Amino acid sequence: MKRAILLLAACGSPPAPTTSNVAVTVPVPAGEYGPPPHLEGDAAAQCKLTESRALACMDQLFVAYYRATTGFDLDDKLVDKHSDDAEARAIHMTTCLGDLDLAYMKNLVVCWNERGCDAFATCVGKRTKRLQ
User: CB-based burial of residue 127 (10 Å sphere; 0-12 exposed, 13-18 middle, 19+ buried)?
Assistant: First the structure.
């Protein structure tokens, strides 16, 4: 019986848009951090919207972002250091506001529902372009 219900639920599909300029939003299920935010407003406002998820994993996120943008690994002494709330917030806001194409915060949203900090940071790092 459960299979029949699941199959019926899976068979339904949303109606196709009638024009090519209709934006389609695919709902993302809310994870342990709630639903990913819809980025709107200026860059500072968008940074605030992504702050809670980034701060929860800032140490791993910083290491992955540094590795992705520079191609170098951090010294183990820095990797093992844990940021306090003020440091984590400063790192997030500096990285977020310093990213002119807004890719950092977009990557945070794309990876929002990754479970655990290592998976989240790895996801963001894989989507981050190396600086030229």
Answer: middle
What's the rounded Cα separation, in Å, for the pair 48 and 93? 8
8 A C-beta contact, residue 124 and residue 61: yes
* Residue 28 one-letter amino acid: V
- pTM score of the predicted model: 0.69
pLDDT digits (tens, 9 = 90+) for 43-95: 888 899 999 999 999 989 998 998 898 888 876 666 666 778 899 999 999 99
Q: End-to-end alpha-carbon separation of the chain, Å?
A: 56
Closest of 44, 71, 58 to residue 120, by C-alpha:
58
Q: Are 96 and 43 in contact (CB under 8 A)?
A: yes
Residue in 129, 130, 124 with CA at minimum distance from that of residue 54: 124
Task: Write the pLDDT tens digit of every residue in 6-16.
Answer: 333 334 433 33
